[in-house]
Specification:
The chain is an alpha+beta fold and 158 residues long. The protein has 4 helices and 5 strands, in the order ααααβββββ. Strands 1, 2, 3, 4 and 5 form a 5-stranded antiparallel sheet that branches. A hairpin with an 8-residue loop joins strand 4 and strand 5.
C-alpha cells in the first residue's frame, strides 16, 4: 500500500535530482561562456591567417561599436562583446546593462591615444553620435596573441 509519506518522499527525491541537473547545466554553460582568454571564441591568429587578422584599430572600433548599443538586449549585447574582451574585462562588463551605456552611433574615426601604443597595449578613441568620445584599451599577452579589449571608457566619463 502506498502512503502519502512515500509519495512525498519520491517527489522530494525527484525534485532534488531535477534541481541538481539544472545546477550542473547552468554551471557548465557559465564555464563555457568565458572563463579565460584562452577559451575565448576569438581564435589566435596563425602564420597562415596573419593577413586576414584585423588591425588593432579595427578591433577597437568593433568593440566600441558593439559596446555603444544601449537599445540592444543584455544577452545579445553580451554575446556580441564577449569574443573581444579579456577575462577581466568580461567580468567587469558582464554586470553592465546596455540601457545604461551612455553612448551610441560610433564613427569609424579612431585615433591612437595616450602612451599605450606598444606591441602589447594600445588605446584608440572614437567619436560617438551621442554620449561623447569612446576610448577602447586593447591588450594581448604575447606578440602573436589576439588583441582583446581590457577597458572601455564611454561617454563623458573621467
Amino acid at each position: 500500500m502506498v502512503t502519502w509519506k512515500r509519495v512525498l518522499a519520491v517527489l522530494g527525491i525527484a525534485l532534488v535530482v531535477v534541481a541538481a541537473v539544472i545546477v550542473v547545466k547552468v554551471a557548465a554553460d557559465l564555464r563555457h561562456t568565458h572563463t579565460n582568454a584562452e577559451q575565448s571564441s576569438t581564435p589566435a591568429p596563425s602564420a597562415s591567417t596573419a593577413a586576414a587578422v584585423p588591425s588593432p584599430e579595427a578591433i577597437a572600433h568593433t568593440v566600441a561599436d558593439r559596446f555603444c548599443q544601449p537599445n540592444t538586449t543584455k544577452n545579445v549585447w553580451q554575446r556580441s562583446l564577449t569574443p573581444y574582451l579579456t577575462a577581466d574585462a568580461w567580468q567587469l562588463y558582464s554586470a553592465v546593462r546596455p540601457a545604461n551605456v551612455p553612448c551610441a552611433g560610433v564613427h569609424d574615426d579612431g585615433q591612437p591615444v595616450g602612451d599605450q601604443q606598444t606591441s602589447m597595449d594600445r588605446a584608440y578613441q572614437f567619436t560617438a553620435s551621442t554620449g561623447g568620445p569612446v576610448t577602447v584599451t586593447l591588450h594581448r599577452d604575447t606578440k602573436t596573441a589576439p588583441w582583446l579589449a581590457s577597458y572601455i571608457n564611454a561617454g563623458d566619463q573621467g
